[in-house]
Structures are given as structure tokens and as C-alpha cells.
Amino acid sequence: MTKLRLLLFGFLAVFCIVVLRLFFIQILHPDLQQDYLSTRRLDPERGKIYDRNGQPIVMNQILYKLYFEPQLIQDKEKTTLSLSKILHVEEASISSRIDVTKKWTSVANGVTKMEKDAILKLSLPGMGFDEQWSRYYPDASIAAHLAGFVGKSDDGTNVGRSGTEGFYDKDLAGLPGLIRSDLDLQGRPIFLGTQERIDPENGRDLYLTIDKSVQMLVKEKLKAGLLKFEAKEGCAIIANPNTMEIVALSCLPDYDPTTYYEFDNSVFRNAAISDVYEPGSTFKPLVMARGIEAGVIKPDTLFNEDGPVKVGDYTIRTWNNSYEGRITLIRALEKSSNVGMVFIGSKMGNDRLYQSILQYGFGEYTNIDMEGEASGFLKPRKAWYPIDYSTATFGQGLAVTPIQMITAFSAVINGGKLMKPYVVKELRGETIQKVEPIFIRQVVSKKTSDIMKKMLLGTIENGETKYLKPKGYQIGGKTGTAQIPIEGHYDATKTIASFIGFSPIKNPQFIGLVIVKEPKTSQWGSETAAPIFFDIAKELIVYYNIAPE
Amino acid sequence: MKNSYQKIIIGIFIAAIIGNITIFISSMKLSTEIHSFDQKTFVLKQENAQLEKEMADTESFLHAEEFKKNWGFVRAAQPVYIGELKYALNTKK
Question: Which PANTHER family does its entry note (chain A) (predicted)?
């Protein structure tokens, strides 16, 4: 009996000690910051972005946030000096962070692993690191507008902005996980306590239709061209005209997505899909194709180009004010005759012309899978005056986006199929989702398309300008020069020069649109945008291993 | 009979205490292992990301360009004689 009592007293004594200890920990000295049941969010890894050949365009990297626990810092001067040297930051800005009234202060974001290791070697007390996932661009700004960047939302979480980062943000972001567990005093999980874990679902990787080599080439040629022609801005798009896969897209000036916050908001705008311009003469083949399709004109239809044409109070002239008398429509396209286009417009009639413009998809979104697309601008039908129908035939008085223009032009040369442009060909997560080309509608017949290709070859072979094109190869295309409308009138000194071309003629493998805004050396598309296109085309012919025709 | 009961109860108590301590120690060990695996997984993830980054760097055009410069695969720079403008302006040999 005595033994049992002793055992009972023993238990009671231990129980009292436990209760007293708990009273001491929880009531007398509660550590409010110590949360025994810890709930932690597990961040998913954001999906990466690759080009069509699996070459990385956007990756992830771990950087570190350096923080101080100021009360634990022993030698303020040494700490400040050492960190200043490693992080290349002014001493004053570091020492200002050592505020002994605070328990924790953030010192620097984006500390690299090398910098972190160098700091850890110093074994200085009172500092620590938090991991931060951030985006990494192995080729810097090679596809800045295409890829977009990752910024911060109001609550500080990562959010994709512009380009594919913006459009596919939900796919790239993934789903966060959660971990709930009881922790002991040393922060280790207690196995017998609460242990719940929902694993995060990493974001899906994007495989773009972009070819990084072509992208690099296009960007370099465009940059060189803009410098040479002293232009304000420029854009170049290369696509597969049969599927409307975008192979390269570059607009300059662009920005470095790593340090996007150092740039003005205006450079984030992807001019290829967000800006509108008057297409000028590059629009002519579209109208001509629909005229041929309707049967109201033929390529060899003759018309009399005997001088300017009067439409109401307005006079329409050719670009060089020279007139050749009776010529065919083939010649009219070669010499880019505005008068010839007004003739075609009159043959088509206003209704057919307006419907043709709608058929090509102008005035509506192409629904390309990038954030920030504009729909262009097409006046409501009621607001069209007779002069509008005339100027529309040669691409003035309407505003289109570059992506609309290249999509519509592709339809003219690919057998008449209007295709939806796209930049992502595959999404890879636990499953692979392939993106197939989307056919929208038949705009012209294959026969008309074949006729147009020959006519567009003629504009290069027999046009006013002789281009430096590779021998033995056939390239079709059309130049365009449009004045910039400012406050209700056109500024004669400022133009948007463009060129749209393709090769080979029989079965086009690539189509390219080059736009040069406000070139100073020459205002004409034939002398600015076209040479940039031919520079790109020469390299593409080699890259795609295209046989001479 | 009474003695036997007492012995059984004491035995159960001792077994319960030993069992409890064993389970507690095991759970501590398991917790430590979980914690250590979590840490190792995280370090592996970091290393993986670092290696991926290095691979991407090696395959990048910027790296190729640096490589090209180091090996001299570049167009030789044309000297410009700023000090003696007569040389700079004289394009004929």
C-alpha cells in the first residue's frame, strides 16, 4: 500500500511540476511571437517559358532578402562596412537600417547566392536571409514585349504583367500549397501533433512558337535599321503564314524585364498588338484580292491613269504625281497607284469594300494570346463619307494594329485562309496541352491567292525601287508609307514606313512585317522598312534552308 | 489475489510509461528526420534552380557572344585617329 501511495505521490508531484511549468511558460512569460501551431503557405514554382526548340527564355532563380535583427548586432561599424563592400551599397543606407528600437528590419532584396555566401563567411551576428523566387532572363531583353514581366500586386504577391506573363498568369502561377503543423520550441514539427500538408501545384511551362535564333536576328536587324534610318520606334513580326504561328516579334525601344521598375510605363506597351497605325499602301493587295475574288476586276484589267482623281472636294494623286496612261492593275500595284486603287474601289462598290475590310478582321481583336491587344479603329458605317471609301482602298483613314495587318496579309498569300495568330504552342504541366492553329474563315479562294502572290512578286521585281535581294530567290511584298494624322490633318514631315513581304512564292514559309515610325533619313517604306526586311529575309532563307525558285 | 491485481496494475503502469516514452522518442526522431528531409529537399531545390540557371546561361546568346569575343571571332575594329584628324578624314590610302 505504501509503495502504491508513493507512486501516486510521485505522479502527483510530476503532474504539479508540469502544470507549474506550463503556468510559467504560458501565463508568466508568454512568447507571443512563438506560434506552436504554424500555418505556412507553400509557394508553387512559377512556370518557365521556352522557345519552340526548348531553349529557355524565362527561368526562375532563388535570390535572398537580407534582414537585420538590430538588437543582436554587436559591431555596427564593421557590419556596415563589410556589407557595403559586398553589396555595393552606400554605407549610409545600410547603417540607417540598424535601428535598435526594432526587432527586424529588411536591408536588401535580390541578394545573389555569391553575395549571400560572402556575407555568411563573415559570421556577423544579427542578420539572416529569406529566400525569394524571382524571374531570370538568360538572354536579357531578347523577347521583353513577348514574354512580359512579373510585377507585384497591391498585396505584394507576384503577378504577370503584359505579354505571355500577363495572358497566361493563372497557368504560370500554379496553386499554392499549405502546411499546418505543431512545432516544438526549436521549430521542429511534432509528429504526434497536427500535421497537415497540401502540396503546391507548380505553374505550367509555356513553349512558345517563337524561335529564339530568329528572334535574336530580327531584334538585331531592327535595332541596326532604326539607328541607320534615325527612326523613333520600330516593330518587326515574322510569322508562318500558313498557321499564323508568330516566330519572332520585336518592338523597339524595349526594356530589361529584370529591372522593369526602372523604365517608363510607355515602353511596356507592345506596339505590335497595342498600337494602331494607318497601313498605307500595304493595304492595297488586300483590297485588290477581294476585287479579283468578287470578279469585278482582273489583274490585266486596263484603266486609264491619266491624272489625279477628284472625290468630292478632295484630289487623290499618285505618290510621285506621275501618271502612265492606260495600264493594267498588275502595273497599278507595281507602281503603287492610289488612282488605280480608287478605280478598283469604284468597281467594287462601297458595300463590298466595307464588307471586305470586315472580312479580314479589321475593327475586331485577333485574340492573340498576349495581354494588351487593341482592336484597331474602323469608323462606324454611318460615319463613312465618299472620300473614306476612296482613301480606304489605299490604306488611309483606317487604323489597324500590326498584328491585324500581318494576319490579313497572310490570308492573301496562304490560299485565302484567315488564321488566328498565336504565340504559345504548348502548355506543359502534369499533362501536355497542345495549341493547334485556328482557322477563322476563308477570305479569298486559293486561285485568287495564287494570282496575288504573282502580283506581289511583280511589285518587288518590277517596282520603282530595286531591292538588294538574294539571287535566285523570289520574294513577294509591298511597301507602305502613311502620314501620321495629328489633330485632324496629316503631318507631312512624319510618316510610318512599312514593308510586308514573304518567301518563297509557291509555298510561303515566312511572312514578315517591318514598321519604322518617323524615320529621318527617308520617309519612304521602300527606303527604310524594306531594306530591314530584306536583311532579315536573307538570313531566314539560309536558316530555313529554302531552295531557290 | 489482491497482490496479483496490484502487480498487474503496476506492470500496466510501467509498460504504459515505457511505451509512452518510446513513442515520444520515436516521434521526436521522426520529427527531426522530417525536418532534416524538408531542409535537404529545399537545398536540393535551390541547387537545382542554380544548375538550371547555369545551363541556361551557357546556352544563351549573351554567353555565346562573350565566348566569341574572347576567341577573337569578331570583326577587327577600325582605328579612328581622333588626335590627328587628317588621318580620320583621309579615306583614300
Answer: PEPTIDOGLYCAN D,D-TRANSPEPTIDASE, PEPTIDOGLYCAN D,D-TRANSPEPTIDASE FTSI
pLDDT confidence tier of residue A243, bands split at 50, 70 and 90: very high
| Residue A2 forms part of a structural domain | no
Task: Provide the CATH number for the domain around residue A290.
Answer: 3.40.710.10
> How far apart are alpha carbons A417 and A408 in whole angstroms?
9
Contact criterion met (CB < 8 Å) for B61 and A142: yes
Nearest to A498 by CA among A285, A275, A286, A282: A282
User: Could A189 and B35 be called an inter-chain contact, meaning their C-beta atoms sit closer than 8 Å?
Assistant: yes
Bridge pairing between strands A205-208 and A49-50: parallel
> Is residue B25 scored above 80 in pLDDT?
yes
**A156 and A119 belong to one structural domain:** yes
Q: What is the pLDDT of residue B33?
A: 87
pLDDT tens profile A284-317: 999 999 999 999 999 999 988 888 888 888 888 8
Contacts of A245 (CB under 8 A, 6+ apart): A209, A239, A421, A422, A423, A425, A437
CA distance A189 to chain B (A): 5
For chain A, what is the domain count? Answer: 2
* Closest chain B C-alpha to A489 CA, distance in angstroms: 44
Query: Is A20 inside any structural domain?
Result: no
Alpha helices in B60-93 (DSSP H): 61-70, 85-89
Higher pLDDT, B73 or A438: A438
Shared domain for A455 and A482, answered yes or no, is yes
**Is residue A527's pLDDT more than 80?**
yes
Confidence category of residue A379, pLDDT binned at 50, 70, 90: confident
Is residue A19 a part of any domain in this protein?
Answer: no
DSSP A211: -
